[in-house]
């Protein structure tokens, strides 16, 4: 999968470049407002490109506010840590039908006072979680009408300090994120592990490094030999 190529039927079938529709862009500073008030106005034509909070709500609060807009959806949550309260809240969302499915990508290290991968697996099942060495925080919320991607500094627990996030409804970005998650599900074992290696994601096309110099062909390198003396 080419990370820079628009993922649309027309581009994959005919090689055409399809430009994303122009969207409204909003920025928010939220001092005390809850998640729902902070993202008010977010819709399929309006992105929140940057929002700053003072830590008054968590990533799960943001996901819940988004689900109130999208309706029931399949959700992926990537987080470094999970609070026990947030795990219980996610279970409640599932039981209320807000979550059609839920997958978790978690860091594999133990955190004091936080839920473990085993705790998450006990609620959602072993195949709903992959643990690895990660610090990424994002959420993917999808149903037939919505493809929301949230990028955030927040974990899945309340952390009363400044946090930032952005969110968009974009099928192309959602497919890219979904492909990463699917690759993790293929590469990593189900359930909690103590593995501290980073995932390889062999099925993902990666950006190649670009060097600031060129290597000349070996045939033209004289390495101090004075050809004029021959």
Can you give a write-up of this model?
The structure is a single chain. By secondary structure, the chain is α/β, with parallel strands linked by helices. It has a single domain, classed as Endonuclease Chain A (Endonuclease, Chain A, 2-Layer Sandwich), CATH 3.30.870. It is 26% helix and 23% strand. The protein is built from six helices and eight strands, in the order αβαβαβαβαββββα. The protein has helices at 9-14, 35-38, 59-70, 84-95, 117-124, 171-187; strands at 24-30, 46-53, 73-79, 99-107, 129-132, 138-142, 147-152, 163-169. An eight-stranded mixed β-sheet has the order 1-2-8-7-6-3-4-5, with helices on both faces. The longest helix has 17 residues, at 171-187. The chain is globular and about 65 Å long.
Tell me the layout of helices and strands.
Elements: H1 9-14, E1 24-30, H2 35-38, E2 46-53, H3 59-70, E3 73-79, H4 84-95, E4 99-107, H5 117-124, E5 129-132, E6 138-142, E7 147-152, E8 163-169, H6 171-187
Parallel strand pairs: 1-2, 3-4, 4-5
Antiparallel strand pairs: 2-8, 3-6, 6-7, 7-8
Span of the ends, CA to CA:
54 Å
Shape by Cα distribution: globular
Q: What's the number of extended β-strand segments?
A: 8
Which stretches of 5+ consecutive residues score pLDDT under 50?
A: 1-18
Secondary-structure element string: HEHEHEHEHEEEEH
Strand content: 15-25%
Helicity range: 25-40%
**What structural class do the secondary elements suggest?**
alpha/beta
